[in-house]
């Protein structure tokens, strides 16, 4: 379904028929993804309505927008407006990679609308101005590369990154599904997303972690050394965060080890439901 949110057309989908007696789990995908990346959730999560959206520049959501419209501040306002449109006061919020950065930002800006926060292989951004400026340059260079060389050349490059080495052991059919999802994106949408919502353009949330009171799960693949380190540091700073490893997974546990990942998700969500009685 598509809805006009603050002048942008957002595509969203209930993965299972909506049941007003159940709470909602909102899932936010990563860069080059769409809400469809969470399709496996329906096999494991029965306690919640699972809601997915295509973020700006991705999937069936608008992409031909000014770069200023892509910032996390704007996207947080969009998510709040979408929830209001759907008559949902608060959600359990799951975000993967880029979607996790957005989920954390949303939880900090709208804590009253998040019951429990689940972050998968994500970060609060970069700590210093120098790091952000350096990353901005790289993000802009990659955005230009996408627009000039096209989506196929970009996807070939993207899939060759060491970050995704562990995905090469997935079944060929799963690898093909991931590739087709990446190839379905519009070059301008990905480029503008990098320029507006890339890690270099995101304000750092490291200093805000101690004030995050929402029960939070940080789930990370055991093979993803970079984000294991980030997650451990986040857990030390965040008073209500649980840190867990998903065995034999790299940067995308919800695809690489879906059963283990969604068991961790369902266990964490169940804690919240048990506390409500």
UniProtKB/TrEMBL annotation:
Residues 23-256 form the AB hydrolase-1 domain. Pfam families: Abhydrolase_1 (PF00561). The keyword Lyase applies. Transmembrane segments: none annotated. It comes from the Bacteria. InterPro entries: AB_hydrolase_1 (IPR000073), AB_hydrolase_fold (IPR029058), SHCHC_synthase_MenH (IPR022485). The keyword Signal does not apply. Its EC number is 4.2.99.20. Gene3D superfamilies: alpha/beta hydrolase. GO terms for molecular function: 2-succinyl-6-hydroxy-2,4-cyclohexadiene-1-carboxylate synthase activity. It catalyses: 5-enolpyruvoyl-6-hydroxy-2-succinyl-cyclohex-3-ene-1-carboxylate = (1R,6R)-6-hydroxy-2-succinyl-cyclohexa-2,4-diene-1-carboxylate + pyruvate. Pathway: Quinol/quinone metabolism; menaquinone biosynthesis; Quinol/quinone metabolism; 1,4-dihydroxy-2-naphthoate biosynthesis; 1,4-dihydroxy-2-naphthoate from chorismate: step 3/7. Keywords: Lyase, Menaquinone biosynthesis. It is an enzyme of class 4 (lyase). Residues 182-206 are annotated as: Disordered. Catalyzes a proton abstraction reaction that results in 2,5-elimination of pyruvate from 2-succinyl-5-enolpyruvyl-6-hydroxy-3-cyclohexene-1-carboxylate (SEPHCHC) and the formation of 2-succinyl-6-hydroxy-2,4-cyclohexadiene-1-carboxylate (SHCHC). HAMAP family: MenH. Belongs to the AB hydrolase superfamily. MenH family. Monomer. PANTHER family: 2-SUCCINYL-5-ENOLPYRUVYL-6-HYDROXY-3-CYCLOHEXENE-1-CARBOXYLATE SYNTHASE, PROTEIN PHYLLO, CHLOROPLASTIC. This is Putative 2-succinyl-6-hydroxy-2,4-cyclohexadiene-1-carboxylate synthase. It comes from Vagococcus proximus.
């Amino acid at each position: 379904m598509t809805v006009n949110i603050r002048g942008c057309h957002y595509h969203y989908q209930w993965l299972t028929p909506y049941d007003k007696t159940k709470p909602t789990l909102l899932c936010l995908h990563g860069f080059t993804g769409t809400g469809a990346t969470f399709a496996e959730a329906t096999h494991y999560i029965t306690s919640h309505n699972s809601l997915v959206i295509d973020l700006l520049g991705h999937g069936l959501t608008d992409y031909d927008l000014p770069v200023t419209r892509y910032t996390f501040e704007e996207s947080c306002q969009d998510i709040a407006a979408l929830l209001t449109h759907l008559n949902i006061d608060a959600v359990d919020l799951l975000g993967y990679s880029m979607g996790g950065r957005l989920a954390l930002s949303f939880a900090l800006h709208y804590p009253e609308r998040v019951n429990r926060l689940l972050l998968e292989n994500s970060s609060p951004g970069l700590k210093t101005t120098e790091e952000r400026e350096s990353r901005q340059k790289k993000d802009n260079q990659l955005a230009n590369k996408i627009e000039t060389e096209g989506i196929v050349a970009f996807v070939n490059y993207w899939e060759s990154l060491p970050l995704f080495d562990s995905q090469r052991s997935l079944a060929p059919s799963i690898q093909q599904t991931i590739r087709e999802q990446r190839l379905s994106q519009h070059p301008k949408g990905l480029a503008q997303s990098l320029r507006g919502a890339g890690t270099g353009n995101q304000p750092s949330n490291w200093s805000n972690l101690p004030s995050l009171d929402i029960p939070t799960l940080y789930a990370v693949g055991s093979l993803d050394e970079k984000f294991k380190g980030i997650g451990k540091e986040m857990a030390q700073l965040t008073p209500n965060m649980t840190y867990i490893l998903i065995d034999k997974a790299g940067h995308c546990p919800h695809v690489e080890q879906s059963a283990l990942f969604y068991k961790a998700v369902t266990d964490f969500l169940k804690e919240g439901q048990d506390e409500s009685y």
